[in-house]
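Final report, section 2: Outcomes. Of the targets proposed, 16S rRNA (Guanine(966)-N(2))-methyltransferase RsmD is the one most frequently requested by collaborating groups, and we therefore present its record in full.
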Amino acid sequence: MTRIVAGRAGGRSLAVPPRGTRPTSDRVREALFSRLEHLDVLDGARVVDLFAGSGALGLEAASRGAADVVLVESAGRAVAVCRRNVSELGLPGVRVAAERVRTWLQRGPTGAGGAPVIDLALVDPPYDLPEEELAGVLADLAGWLDPQGVVVVERSARSPEPPWPTGLARFDDRRYGETALWFAEPVPREGAPAPPGHLAP
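The predicted structure is given below as tokens.
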């Protein structure tokens, strides 16, 4: 069973697609969101959950205080499950984008004047997604991020480090059994405030 770990909807169960997705375990989600709360990036955050599957990561963020969450998923059954979970949990500010991740990203940021509109990007692609495709996703994503934003990529522990594009840099990684979490942030421009990942772990 998959459930929301903590926050406003803590303990509520989530539906998952019958096949074709790989839900992040409750243990890994608990560890991930503890780290994100330590970095102080959740409260009021604008969040995108790419390759959303059941929407568990984005919905966990909404439960813990994120203000705006977009679940991006293209597989029909997973989209239906995302919409069901959004409806049943009733968390405000959550919506589903039923399209391919790169199609959605390549429209560009939609903030005022094209300003960055994402504080937290949760990227959980299929483990068999080719590295070159992941590189394209991360490159498309970089322009959406607030200068204080954080990117988390979930991969198999046997996969190499994600291919970060120019403008993004890793600041942490954690491993939980077969799962690896990679944390990255925008490279600050000269004179800009240090992103949250520069805090002591």
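The mean pLDDT is 90.
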